[in-house]
Amino acid sequence: MTQPRNVVVGVAGGIAAYKACHLIRDFKEGGDDVRVVPTHNALNFVGAATFEALSGNPVDSGVFTRVDEVQHVRVGQEADLIVVAPATADVMARIAAGRADDLLTSTILVATCPIVLAPAMHTEMWLNPATQANVKTLRDRGITVLEPAHGRLTGADSGPGRMLEPAQIAELSRTVAQTGPFGRALEGQRVLISAGGTQENIDPVRFIGNHSSGRQGFALAEIAAQKGAQVTLVAGDTDELYTPPGAEVVRVSSTRELETAMNERAAAADIIIMAAAVADFRPQAASDSKLKKGSDSDALSRIDLVENPDVLRGLVDKREAGQTAARIVGFAAETDNVLDNGRAKLKRKGADMLMVNSVAGGAVFGQPRNSGWLLGADGSEVEIPDGPKQVVAARMWDVIERGNK
Ligand code: CTP
């Protein structure tokens, strides 16, 4: 879809309504045309003037203003994407029941575009069977109800129900607009993902590392969590990235730490993805004290390296020994003969699938976009076109989850 899109930001009556202001800005800065449709209750938290100023468009809640423009039908018909943030228990119940008692619910009843709801409520309300039944109804109808974050709520209590951050909602919504509703194909699946780069110490100050940002691994974890998976993320050195909702994040530094963390959790996983950029070699001996230019020049100018374990190959060996039943997906970064090298690497590593990226000319590492081919041990080859790493992750899962059936 080319920009600008017509994005409707629905805002329901919860304290997280103030965060909708950042979401509106995010879409505006991305070049979208934004129409804000708050419920009457949302206006108790944020005034219409704020929404009008941020969106540059008029703001109405009811269906009896600008009646000549038939707004209750037109706003929904013209929308390319509808995002409701925060989505309260009440607004989800009304949407699930097919009500059309204000402009937001009328708009949703008319719309045929992708719809994303970002819930925000107390944990008890989120877990209540009535809310969960409504969430299921909405998801079955193709509406994407995002998993809320786990964290501190309005009071001192904590649990699932906190609204995702506006930047996360914007990114996930754009992904849904491109790839379709997330669906729940990974419900009940235990997914173990490694992400980021490893660091191998030379001394307490210096290390050997790489340019990995961890973005692709985190994006895979985020989409898996949104598709219902129980996610464990083993993360090396990464940029500052959002923790996927409900995910366990284990921080590691060196390749050997990463190997231990992955091996310990492999038995309990259904799907393992090795997205980490693992350092192939490490200094033979790391110095306990800082090496000095003068006295330690020899040690600094020539660092003897030893090879690190191949974590992916080790996981495949574990499976062959019956210690895990997980399906195993690897990555391959190649600069030349990308597909041929990828095919050979898939065979060598014994994984079920390999996502082959071309990293020639600085592409991929640390960049927000990616592309490649997902190769299967069965000879399959799916091209994943260039896109933001989260879109790439959603397309990868569409292929990987087919193997669950
Ligand atoms: N990998 C691993 N352990 C290593 C090196 C790589 O588990 N010591 C994993 C990576 O996480 C990735 C896959 O193996 O999923 C391929 O990584 P890549 O660096 O492309 O391959 P290498 O095995 O290092 O081969 P080469 O550098 O010779 O291309």
Describe the structure.
This protein is an alpha/beta fold and 405 residues long. It has two domains: 6-179, Flavin prenyltransferase-like (Rossmann fold); 190-403, 3-Layer(aba) Sandwich (Rossmann fold), CATH 3.40.50. Helices cover 34% and strands 23% of the residues. The chain is built from 14 helices and 19 strands. An eight-stranded mixed sheet has the order 12-11-8-13-16-17-18-19, sandwiched between helices. Strands 2-1-3-4-5 form a five-stranded parallel sheet, with helices on both faces. A two-stranded antiparallel ribbon has the order 6-7. The radius of gyration is 24 Å and the shape is elongated. The two termini are 31 Å apart. 45% of the residues are buried. Cytidine-5'-triphosphate (CTP) binds at residues 255, 274, 276, 278, 280, 308, 310-312, 330-333. It holds the Pfam family Flavoprotein. This is Coenzyme A biosynthesis bifunctional protein CoaBC. Its cofactor is Mg(2+); FMN.
Summarize the structure.
34% of the residues lie in helices and 23% in strands. The protein has 405 residues and is of the alpha/beta class.
Domain unit count = 2
| Shape summary | elongated
Q: What's the helical proportion of residues? A: 25-40%
Strand content: 15-25%
The radius of gyration is: 24 Å
Global structural class? alpha/beta
The low-confidence runs, each spanning 5 or more residues with pLDDT under 50, are none
